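step 3/5: co-fold with zinc ion
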Amino acid sequence: MLIVAVLFATVLLRFGIVLGVVYLILPATRICPQCASDLTLIRHPILRHLIPQVEHRWCLGCGWNSLVRRPRGPRSGSQSRVISRAARS
Ligand SMILES: [Zn+2]
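step 4/5: write tokens
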């Protein structure tokens, strides 16, 4: 029984390490890495509740989209008018 607990602990440790590395690989920015435009937040209720530190953002300039880490500090800008209008409808 001890060997099962040790193997299960190593599996959990690997899972935690992979999640930590993936989180650190994600860019922590609100600026597009390809064209330097502001990224627009795409709202995902499930993602927001499961992993609140991660956001899905989209560049209106070049179409780049990805998951990004939520940057710390004050927000530099608000959501674009196009996305806000689409979210209301
Ligand atoms: Zn872009």
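step 5/5: annotate
The pocket of zinc ion is lined by residues 32, 34-35, 37, 59, 61-62, 64 (CB under 6 Å).
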